[in-house]
Amino acid sequence: MTEVKFGWRIPSFPVNGSKGREFVAQIIGNLEVIEEHYDSAWISDHFIPWANFVPMKTDVLECWTTICYLAGIFKRIKFGSIVLCNSYRNPALLAKMSATLQVLTDGRFLLGIGAGWKEDEYIAYGYEFPKASARIKQLEEAVQIIRRMWEEDVVTFKGK
């Protein structure tokens, strides 16, 4: 029989009005409950709420910082990104950040990366929002760069 693994989606913003440390305490409490029963926990990569039922000024936890913080507290569970927006981080830097987090967590980081979709978030943070076809091509190149940086000693890449 195939083994089924379970993961929990960590909320990146509260929907119950909690703020700051109160919200973080709720996440930690939830992880304490699920830690022995789930294999992984995942958080999305957004800077502003992606749901229209939450006020725009709602605090949003940044993905990388949150994963690093929680992985330092919880030593068994794996942590992943669902999914990192390729446009927000240089792929070479992302490869280095991911490799470093793999070392620090003893292999418990799971990288999820995508092309991005939330135009208002791009604009709010000063990022150009290319057409979907361009974002997908950029993602393809980013994955090539990341993989090569993990596997090769010296990498040169000429992208478009």
Compact overview of the structure:
This protein is 41% helix and 11% strand.
Task: Explain this structure.
The protein has 160 residues and is α/β, with parallel strands linked by helices. The chain is built from five helices and six strands. It has helices at 20-34, 63-73, 91-104, 119-124, 132-151; strands at residues 7-10, 40-43, 78-81, 84-85, 109-110, 113-114. The protein has a four-stranded parallel sheet with strand order 1-2-3-5. A two-stranded parallel sheet has the order 4-6. Helix 1 (20-34) links the parallel strand 1 and strand 2 (40-43). It is globular. The model has no long low-confidence stretch (mean pLDDT 94).
Task: Explain the layout of strands and helices.
Blueprint: E1 7-10, H1 20-34, E2 40-43, H2 63-73, E3 78-81, E4 84-85, H3 91-104, E5 109-110, E6 113-114, H4 119-124, H5 132-151
Parallel strand pairs: 1-2, 2-3, 3-5, 4-6
